[in-house]
Amino acid sequence: MADDKKDWYLLYCKGKEEPRALTNLKNQGIDSFYPTMTVEKRLRNKLILKDIAIFPNYLFVEIDKNTANFNSIRSTRGVIDFVKFGANYTKVPAALVAELRATQRCRDKSENAVTVFSAGEKVIIQDGAFKGIEAIYQCKDGLERSVLLINLINNTTTMSVANGEIKSKSESEY
């Protein structure tokens, strides 16, 4: 028997259709991987968490080259073709895919916090009526707001401010 181990290959997908291709490949019983990461995005002046592709338009698939139907994979909805160098399909080292998967699992387990301030950290208000005022971060107030402690006219007060309006004091010094 020749080589019956599976190899990882790289697929090129239609724009923004990687999730569709991933679902259709999994329905065919093909092990596939689409690495993403969660990032902060500003949408209509609000910070939101959004999953984005690490490699846009690309998908990793693990198949046995002796038994796999390459035409069926190429014809999967969302897939354009295999990435090739000349006439040869591009193989991806299994160690690279394993490392990307491990990194993905670590990212998925980490806290999905929009703001990374810790209690007691000094921040600067960037927008609004209190722009430029130094405050002390207290805690989150939902996904979009934070509670700050500010000192106004020798009177310490707590207030809730949108996360997009504050910045760490150490960031603003640079």
From TrEMBL:
<dbReference type="Pfam" id="PF02357">
    <property type="entry name" value="NusG"/>
</dbReference>
<keyword id="KW-0804">Transcription</keyword>
<dbReference type="GO" id="GO:0031564">
    <property type="term" value="P:transcription antitermination"/>
</dbReference>
<dbReference type="GO" id="GO:0005829">
    <property type="term" value="C:cytosol"/>
</dbReference>
<dbReference type="InterPro" id="IPR036735">
    <property type="entry name" value="NGN_dom_sf"/>
</dbReference>
<dbReference type="GO" id="GO:0006354">
    <property type="term" value="P:DNA-templated transcription elongation"/>
</dbReference>
<protein>
    <submittedName>
        <fullName>Transcription antitermination protein RfaH</fullName>
    </submittedName>
</protein>
<dbReference type="InterPro" id="IPR043425">
    <property type="entry name" value="NusG-like"/>
</dbReference>
<dbReference type="InterPro" id="IPR010215">
    <property type="entry name" value="Transcription_antiterm_RfaH"/>
</dbReference>
<dbReference type="InterPro" id="IPR006645">
    <property type="entry name" value="NGN-like_dom"/>
</dbReference>
<feature type="domain" description="NusG-like N-terminal">
    <location>
        <begin position="5"/>
        <end position="104"/>
    </location>
</feature>
<keyword id="KW-0805">Transcription regulation</keyword>
<keyword id="KW-0889">Transcription antitermination</keyword>
